[in-house]
Design goal:
By secondary structure, the chain is α/β, with parallel strands linked by helices. It has 15 helices and 14 strands. Helix 6 crosses helix 8.
């Protein structure tokens, strides 16, 4: 499932549902949404219909009042109430910043200012979220880009729900998928100019990681911040939120189905890989980077090998590439193996053990050709991934210290294989 909900004018509408908590539950889908500025909605057209279909009963606008006047607010409608709560008291001009400004430390400092200046408004926002949750009414909160003020409030709510910090960081960084559109919108509003600051519209994981570290250093925890700065009972607030916004993880997820990818699937494959890359970076794993594989890469793999998609019901659950040779990693070899690449399970919403199911399906495809081996490689610096493949029956066949995919510097990989038939 792509966490971004498609709109024509909105760029960063996301459902916070599906994230797992530390106690094994997950956030209920379609109750809590985050967004960029809803003033871009008109009363007519498909976007308005899409928005009303979410069933939102409360809209929290985190922008300054003058922003809402200048950029517009969500149109009035009897189905929801509107609240303008400007949690930011010290405006700053991101596009005008100098290129030397590091996004991580700079934005984390601004977020701490907001956390300390906007206590009255943040408290009220959390109360509205609590009340909407108790009434099982969907709620959306937003700012201008759906990144900074929105990301900060999302982090507080997710922390109170018991979502682990790496997932909170990941949720923040998913704005990176919307960054090109946010930049294009700014340029369209400003005569085609480019912002002075290269960090405009970006959401690197370091921003949220540094903010949460600073908040913890000063207050001890998000709960202590809620108690000491917001003067709310954190236990009572968390209990209400968890009672109404969490649900047990599904015990009988739908069985996976598979189909071979076609060229029209290339955008979805790029999106999935970039999403997984952001998740890795949020967890401090330096392996994939967003933007490394474009649509042409996947179309090429479809022409020269196979690309497969997995579905849980109607929702995309994962994908993988199947190659019939891999000289860059394995050198010249007889036609005795299939080579599995980019095994990708949709984060947070794919059924449990989807990765293992994808691997088994890929192996069955290889075995059906009569080839006796399944082969793959993983970064030599990722022992956790190596252990995962070992648990699936793969053994180390060697090392390739200078593999290159043509897009960057050579890197070392561990070569692994599994015998499928005698």
């Amino acid at each position: 499932m792509d966490r971004h909900i498609p709109f024509d004018a909105l760029r960063n509408v996301r459902d916070l549902g599906g994230y797992a908590t530390g106690d094994g539950r997950r956030v209920r889908p379609r109750l809590l949404f985050r967004s960029d500025g809803l003033g871009k909605l008109g009363r007519d057209g498909a976007d308005w219909d899409r928005f009303l279909a979410l069933g939102v009963g409360t809209v929290i606008d985190l922008r300054h009042g003058w922003e809402a006047e200048r950029q517009g607010r969500v149109p009035e409608h009897p189905s929801f109430t509107y609240h303008n709560l400007s949690i930011e008291h010290r405006p700053y001009d991101q596009p005008a910043l100098g290129p030397e400004v590091e996004p991580g430390p700079y934005l984390a400092e601004r977020y701490m200012e907001v956390a300390e200046d906007g206590t009255k408004e943040i408290r009220r926002a959390l109360e509205l979220i609590r009340d909407a949750a108790a009434s099982h009414t969907p709620l959306v909160f937003h700012c201008a880009s759906g990144k900074d003020r929105t990301g900060q409030l999302a982090a507080l709510v997710l922390a109170l729900l018991g979502v682990p910090e790496p997932t909170i960081v990941e949720d923040f960084s998913l704005t990176e998928l919307a960054s090109p559109a946010l930049l294009a919108d700014w340029q369209a509003r400003n005569g085609g100019r480019t912002p002075n600051w290269p960090g405009y519209g970006r959401a690197p994981a370091a921003v949220m990681r540094l903010f949460l570290a600073a908040l913890t250093e000063k207050y001890g925890s998000v709960g202590s911040y809620v108690r000491d700065a917001l003067e709310l009972d954190p236990e009572a607030l968390a209990d209400t939120l968890r009672t109404h916004l969490l649900e047990p993880a599904p015990t009988a997820p739908p069985a996976l189905t598979y189909r071979k990818a076609v060229p029209a699937d290339a955008p979805a494959l790029v999106r999935l890989r970039d999403t997984l890359a952001l998740g890795q970076l949020a967890r401090g794993i330096d392996q994939w980077k967003p933007g490394e594989k474009d649509e042409e890469h996947f179309r090429t793999r479809m022409r020269e090998g196979e690309v497969w998609l997995a579905y849980a019901g109607e929702h995309l659950a994962g994908a993988w590439e199947l190659w019939w040779d891999d000289p860059a990693a394995w050198g010249p070899r007889p036609c005795d193996a299939g080579y599995i690449h980019r095994l990708m399970a949709v984060p947070h919403t794919a059924p449990p053990r989807t990765g293992r199911a994808l691997l088994a399906e890929a192996e069955s495809r290889i075995a059906a050709t009569g080839r006796p081996y399944a082969r793959l490689d993983c970064l030599a610096t990722n022992p956790r991934l190596r252990a995962y493949y070992e648990s699936a029956g793969y053994t180390t066949a060697g090392e390739q210290p200078t593999k290159s995919d043509g897009t960057g510097s050579p890197y070392a990989v561990t070569l692994m294989e599994k015998r499928l038939r005698d």
